[in-house]
Amino acid sequence: MTSRLRPGDGTIVTIERFILEQERDYPDATGTLTNVLYDMALAAKIISSHTTRAGLAQILGSTGEQNVQGEEVQKLDAFAERTIFRLNDHTGRLAVMASEEIDNPIPIPPQFATGKYVLVYDPLDGSSNIDYNVSVGTIFAIHRRKSAEGPGTLDDCLQPGRDLVAAGYIIYGSSTIMVYSTGQGVHGFTLDPHIGEFLLSHPDIRIPAKPKYYSANQGYERHWTEGVRRFTQDLQGDNEQKQALSLRYIGSLVADFHRNLLAGGIFYYPADSQDPRKPQGKLRLVYEAAPLAFLAEQAGGYASDGQRRILDIRPERLHQRVPLYIGSRSLVEKAEDYIRRYDAVPAAQ
Ligand code: AHM
Ligand code: MG
For residues 276 and 168, which has the higher predicted lDDT (pLDDT)? Predict the structure, then answer.
């Protein structure tokens, strides 16, 4: 069992070793999923090396400008998008991909073989934070294809989160950390930039029982429903125990989720009752909510749209948005409770 592998006793556990050991627990595994995960780890290293140089863009040239060599410099999110695609387009492991940056499913180029998995990803989430040197992240999720053979289809990408085979994220912060799950717990690896390897640093992550933080953009509070506002007051100490949580909001989903995963807490981006542009909140079901919901549940937490388990929602559109409440189970269930009590839509007569 991979739980044997722990850092700190002198054993250095690379992500490769860990993934291989996990695979050994499945005698029928072919190694294909393992290799998709390796490819994501490699993409993470390449994107990480670019994000740490992002501040040099002004010196070396930024999007639409020429760098000192007279070459056009790509925007970082476009670079991340192409990196993930290029590392995965020719391997014969994937049937199709879908990216938050691209309108339609991304086919495997016809000269390459297709395979049995489907990769969906948000290449650089929170990219508006890059100019301010705030953490950003990559989110990814892997499904088994549903279509029989040949090029993968839109339907292959529109599967509910409960059918995910694996999901993970990479956070480009003070360190670069990759966190993933294949349904056997959640494990985190920190990139050692000197040797270029991800090393096991956070085995078997479980959300702590006692939550510490709540994370929401309270700048939009006046657009929230009654239930969400009352829930927020509860988190601020308006409850029987008079227990208040601290507010932390980075505005970069991966970073907010990562902190609450390790410390306990809830992140929410509610539906907007006033703003017709955001009736379903902001975050995307396929690329953001479902992959992180898979990780949250694997770590003992929970994720909901306020009424339904995120993992049970079957996407109807690739870029569908969804309200998101995610983190410690007790807090997400409390949010559902407030929404049920105060925001229930009266049944049609
Ligand atoms: P993006 O996909 O355009 O980067 O937007 C998603 C980001 C999330 O990382 C973050 O949780 C959210 O937008 C923050 O939105 P806001 O600025 O409205 O609080
Ligand atoms: Mg995003």
Answer: 168
Task: Name the residue with the closest Cα to ligand 1, atom 7.
Answer: 126
pLDDT at position 345: 66
pLDDT at residue 64 in the model: 54
In 3D space, the residue among 82, 166, 154, 204 whose CA is nearest the CA of residue 314 turns out to be 154
Cα 203 to Cα 220: distance, rounded to the nearest angstrom: 36
Helices (H), 264-328: 290-298
Q: At 220, is the secondary structure helix, strand, or coil?
A: helix
- What is the CATH topology of the domain spanning 213-342? D-Maltodextrin-Binding Protein; domain 2 (3.40.190)
Do 15-202 and 213-342 fold alike per CATH? no
| Domain definitions of the chain by residue range | 15-202, 213-342
Beta partners for residue 152, in sequence order: none
User: What is the distance between the alpha carbons of residues 336 and 222, in angstroms, rounded to a whole number?
Assistant: 19
The pLDDT, as a whole number, for residue 131 is 80
Rounded to the nearest whole angstrom, what is the distance from the C-alpha of residue 219 to the centroid of ligand 1? 13
Rounded mean pLDDT, 99-117: 96
Pairwise CA distance, residues 187 & 193, whole Å: 19
Contact partners, residue 86, CB within 8 Å, separation at least 6? none
Helical pair 253-263 and 290-298, crossing angle rounded to 10 deg: 10
For 221, 252, 261, the CA distances from 232, given in Å and listed in that order, are 9, 20, 19
Give me 193's structure tokens.
Answer: 């930039």
Q: Of ligand 1's atoms, which has the minimum distance to the CA of residue 283?
A: 6
Residues with CB under 6 A from ligand 1: 125-128, 217, 251-253, 282
What is the value of pTM for the model shown?
0.92
Between helices 76-88 and 32-51, what is the axis angle to 10°? 160
* Ligand 2 centroid, distance to 8 Cα (angstroms): 34
| Contact between 272 and 279 (Cβ < 8 Å) | yes
Q: Where does the pLDDT of residue 76 fall: very low under 50, low under 70, confident under 90, or very high at 90 and above?
A: confident
**Ligand 1, residues 99, 253, 267, 277: which to mutate, most atoms within 8 A of Cβ?**
253
Instruction: Report, as an integer, the average pLDDT of 318-323.
Output: 96
CATH architecture, domain defined by 15-202: 2-Layer Sandwich (3.30)
